[in-house]
Design brief:
homotetramer; 133 residues; 6-stranded antiparallel beta sheet; 3 helices
């Protein structure tokens, strides 16, 4: 990955606090993983929907920003399919539409054993601002 | 608020890590706030969509769980209306539909000055499990 | 309403086939109604989700197009709150966000007796093309 | 397809008015097509979002009802990826989650040439009522 891009993603402090790690990232495609620990759980002892959403949103963001311009999420929809309470989760973002300045991504989140935990569709808006920090 | 409920919400470790505080909570209605700090920001320096989603989701959760049974999110949609980078944000969840076992909530997130930052609609599924921890 | 706008809305042949009628329309706000008949029902005898969506989408469209440029829906989320099988339904679209070129609307659909049947959030993209047909 | 199921789908009068035709249908999977004509167009001359939604919703409905119980849509999200103004459109519904009584489907709508026009995620609620009309 490009150094500027790497610095930009490293600057995502919320993603860092959540423990998200980029596994693979290129324009229009990305995979991000997270190792679940106690700080990710909700009151019922399951992985928090907010953590799952953050994982999907960051995964979309890395794929959309990899084109070199800052792209910001405008709308997202997430469906929680199965519960999980540990292990390493992995998100995969695939671009399903691009019609400047809007990008659409599907993101699926899987458990370690490949079970689909959540399905997310999100739209990002590409700004004129180049990534250069 | 009921003590069992309080313990249940306190047990939400992801909400705690995010710094979320319940302001008001009763069956079908809730307000939750968060004081923004650096750990909530994304790479572009704005409050992360994942933090906003978590705020809305937890707000919905407290309102829906206040009936006394564990209710889990099944689907949520969030639209990001305006960017923000600091201050105290407040979410308000209002129940707009209830058709057992499904609850529907609208959650709006406002900045300190009352600007609408995000609009969220979510659906929770009420389980048979009573809150008793 | 402006004549060009009126002609543009009259040219919406799907809205016409569905029997949708504009009650009030100005930039950022609109109300549209439909008198339910047999052709609007699904296999279970309830008003079809597709008709409810069309009502909400057209309502958003009239509010967003009333600014004078063609605005096209890019994403919509609808939650079905209560079933209905007849009478006159009314949709009301309220603009909740505008950040050029994206507009966000909330649309609620009510039964004749004021019961909330569906809640819709949609985003439209404003094109450069003026309404002039 | 089972006769009762066929009768149930034939009883969907809104789907019939829209010209929707089931191509293939089994529990958890369905394909539905529609031949676009003038009555499906919006004011700008494109296929109406309401028709696309109806196509996706009916496609989900046939897949979910094929299990033999009436399943009703509770929430749907649709993203419009590309515009279209004619030809035969085809929707394909794939079940991505099932956790009684909720079913989740992804539905993609394609143009005649295989271009992705819209992506839909919907959730249906399975009732106790058997299909028997």
């Amino acid at each position: 990955m490009d150094e500027k891009l790497q610095r930009y993603f490293n600057n995502d402090r919320f993603a860092a606090m959540c423990g998200l790690e980029i596994v693979e990232c290129r324009p229009g495609y990305s995979r991000v993983q997270v190792q679940i620990n106690d700080s990710h759980l909700n009151g019922a002892g399951y992985v928090h929907g907010g953590l799952l959403f953050t994982l999907a949103d960051f995964c979309l963001g890395t794929a959309a920003n990899a084109y070199g311009h800052i792209a910001l999420s405008v709308n997202s929809n997430i469906t929680f399919i199965a519960k999980s309470s540990g292990g390493t989760l992995i998100a995969e973002a695939v671009e399903i539409g691009r019609s400047n300045p809007l990008f659409t991504y599907d993101v699926n989140i899987f458990s370690e054993t490949g079970e689909l935990l959540a399905h997310f569709t999100g739209m990002a808006y590409k700004t004129q601002r180049e990534i250069d920090i």
